[in-house]
């Protein structure tokens, strides 16, 4: 019988001195998580594909710490989060990793199913689920007891929109595997959770042609239950809660300003 999961402070300030790998940490919610984590004294490894975006993000997260921070307080690893070599580089670079947050994602495989080929469907599933399983495999063998993995999904899983069948099926699978993996990894005292986001004001949201200006975001957000979209920091804070609280596993936590109820 393994020892029970350690008891420790569930406050996010207790993440000080821990190390988190943020896959998708060069923008939006992942980047905001990096800033919050560094501001409470955690070490952070950011993973993203675009080297320029990653470099700027590393610098932004470093600025959230103090001038005396060692160079390895914030690292950047450029590559695809589904590539096991990239993941090994991130874990090896960190030396010791306590938490993994996965916010890598984007819009792919959209459109009516009748217009998508079998290859289109396979590519979307391979990208999202292939990445998720690669991360789960790596994290499961590298994290210590008390470690956590936090994935991302979205409220369209609950309230689908036309043309989103393929990406939402993959996102729904992430929610299901969260529960299955939580059960599988509990004996190793690892926790697995997902944050299900509503509309969060990030570069991904603003990449939609109808939301590419402050005015458009404010106007569209005004119809949300709380009168605006969420901020990346509000979204990221929920991931920090899940990292810090050693008694939460197998959960999908919705952060959507009440939108899924409206
Ligand atoms: N914002 C929302 O309203 C919203 C709503 C529901 C769900 N979500 C989900 O929440 C997550 C975060 O969204 P966000 O709004 O923060 O998006 P974002 O601003 O576009 O950030 C996504 C990050 O992931 C990285 N990334 C994408 N694909 C990657 C890959 N294969 N390997 C490594 N890094 C990768 C991106 O950098 P590179 O492109 O340079 O790799 C970027 O740093 C996504 O999974 C998204 O689907 C967001």
UniProtKB/TrEMBL annotation:
Pfam families found in the cross-reference section: adh_short_C2 (PF13561)
Keyword vocabulary terms for this entry: Oxidoreductase
Keyword Phosphoprotein recorded: no
Residue runs in coiled coils: none
Superkingdom of the source species: Bacteria
GO terms assigned for molecular function: oxidoreductase activity
InterPro entries, sorted: NAD(P)-bd_dom_sf, SDR_DHRS6-like, SDR_fam
Family, similarity comment: Belongs to the short-chain dehydrogenases/reductases (SDR) family.
Full protein name: Short chain dehydrogenase
